Amino acid sequence: MMGTPVEIHASRQQEVPMTYEPPTALPRGLLDGDDDVRQALAVHDFGTVFRLARERAGVSYAKIAAECGISRERVGTLARGHGRITTFEKVVRISDALRVPGHMVGLSPRPWEASTDVTGGAPLDRRTVLHAATTSGLAAALPALHRPDASRRVTPAHVERLRARTARLRRLDMVLGGGDTYRVYLAEVQHTKHLLRSRSFTGESRRLLTGLLAEQAQQAGWAAFDGGRPGDATGLYEESRGYAREAGDDDLYGNSLAFLAYGAGDRRAAVTTAQDSCDTITARTPATVRALLYERLAWASAVDGRAIGAERALDAARDALNGAPEGEPQPDWAAWVDHTELDIMTGRCWTELRRPLRAVPVLTRALGRYPDDNARDKALYLSWLARAYLTAGEVEEAAVTVGRAVDLAHGVASERPLQRIVPLIDDLRHHGDVPAVRGLMAHLAA
Fold first, then answer.
1. 235/33 Cα distance (integer angstroms)
2. pTM of this prediction?
3. How is residue 153 annotated by DSSP?
4. Where are the alpha helices (DSSP H) in 227-338?
């Protein structure tokens, strides 16, 4: 169950009631009163935190490296603004080493916070082993994510509380890869299935809970796909389609087809399935859902070499966003679809169609608006920009862009960035006489 405590492994000696102040502990005045530090912590920009810790608190990079379990070279690279810390385990380790209260980095209160005395001391630092790959480890350490208790009778209000929890958990996908989140999302699916089997229901609550299960299965399927489990992903998408049909939710049914199309190996079948997903669109379909389904059709068309079909689908997606009625409710699972995402998909499609003159400008503009915090996605999108540059013969720009993608992808528990970056590196090796390529290869070797 996701509500079980995080497991902590410590020796008997570590349980002695002593206080220990790590040499990297940041002064309270810096944590409480320095806006630069607080902002950097809030967005997990630990490179900036490391730099400010040295400049304003005199904490050396060597000490940070030792306490955080990071190499000195990596600490220096992060402090210079290259790369991100994206794994959950490392965020926890840094928080403990710098004595950053959990709420400042999106964690529950850390064990040492509860018994910190008035002098600022904290319990002897334990080598905590957080099982982030299991459902108990990751979810139990996150704030406000414990499941609401369910009585024997499930009401619509209880389903809405579970839906709000699902929306909060979905935010993990913005900063973590599917390798970190898959088991968390799968546990939600299993829990909801258990409720449907073991509880009684009032009014519309069974139908609502079945619709939520369709939504959760799609999220778990996406994490499986992102984490290199394509078979599991397809199975979950198929389950989701059945649940959406049972719940009478046309939007989720269409999205299950769009997911199946996105992961399909047969290009022509993918186009057919994506078109089927768009056929579920009605006058009641929210704008972001329409745009999402048309985006997936555009991608399937581009992969199959259908330039006209891709452009038409992209135009339909843009019309959907431009024509969204003011105040129209959008489902949380489609709320991420906006003009920036559509521009990125547009650039991806033109890259896939080997039309770099159309791809590069739109990708460059969109990625300029895209935050580095979403490291996995930005690394992926940069890989398409690099491919467009390479197709256009702009080897130097391609090498620089691949370097940025590599730094962002470092430590992200997702298979997809490397699946795209490695072929780019292989292609760039043929241009070893170009200084930018030599610089990239040296960077990779280091």
1. 50
2. 0.68
3. E
4. 230-247, 250-262, 267-278, 287-303, 307-322
